[in-house]
TrEMBL record:
It comes from Rheinheimera marina. Gene3D superfamilies: FAD/NAD(P)-binding domain (3.50.50.60). The keyword Flavoprotein applies. This is FAD-dependent monooxygenase. The keyword Flavoprotein applies.
Amino acid sequence: MLDLDIAIVGAGSAGLTLALLLSELPLKIAVLDKGDAPQIGAAPSLQRVSALNQASRRVLQQLGAWQQLSSKAGFQKMEVWEADSFARIAFDAAGQQVDALGYLVDNEELRQCLFQQLADKANVRCLFNCQIDSINAGEEQTLLSLSGQGPVLCKLLVAADGANSFVRQQLKMPIAFWDYDHQALVCQIHSTEPHGQCARQVFLKDGPLALLPLADSHLLSIVWSVPPEQAEQLLALSEAEFNKALTVASGNALGVLSRASVLSAHPLKMRYASEWLLNKVVLVADAAHTIHPLAGQGMNLGLMDVVALAELISEQVLARKPLQEERLLRRFERWRKAEAQTLIVAMEAFKRGFGSSNPALKLVRGLGMRLVDKAGPLKKSIMAAALGNSGDLPKRARPEFTPD
């Protein structure tokens, strides 16, 4: 039997980040994942990328993973506008006194870099191709039965196993969800005009199109949110026809656009676990919540979950108190639930606000965006939150944090 202090199910970016943070403590930790181990040194595909803010960058830098990333591409500007409207707003890094408004990183390469940093952590074990048969969540400890392997006993089980969390489903932890009735079309594109390190997002009649700049000045990643029937039509187009449709949708902002990788579609759903805690099992990141990608905050929200949990566990260990104390876990749940709820509500309001073609609402949107664009303090406040430079952040993610 493997006897642990903490077992983390899921070796994605959130689970591996948590393991790295906890490796600084005198704890026995294991990461369990049903898939293969990350292939260290594999070239980034850039097929799936995430936008990371300054708070996430600070944490990953402290852990040594940020420095190993070859795919990170900072963007200096951001332009948001509505098609067929005068609604427009722009941001720039200089105005926010930061080196970049955000960074595009390859999801799998980030996972590789985090895994590599765990290599010399003697108190952390990583078990891959690991199938969990059953979970017995007791009041004091949790027992995991693994297929073809010995059982695992842990004081605290952390579910970081994604939107379709096996742990959450096995323990029948309730979750609220609704279908956005949209699919995200994702691929890399080439532009005839240089992107100028500017992230662009245009709100179209049927959903937003994001054009996210990569390191190559003519290469971008797109996230095009459309209804399922439109997604099916776009997927059925020839490459030339798709390129034409995409160029028109972008308003020719970057000249002619052409596909540079395989096009894939991903259904969009909001998920929110009403309970993040069951006995000594806690949900984090996508296992606890998923949001619409229009603001690019999903990865940041999940990383802040695990940084917050590690912070509270560290306080418990240093105070020589039980790391699975319910008071501690409830404190984590209240803290991060509040952050997730705020972002979910904001994204839903934003999506619904731009989802109507009513002329009066279009006028209000246009006036509102123009007003915010010219209101310096309000604009700066909005961007500070998006950058991860304000709000109820964990200590390690704050701008003023300095390691001991």
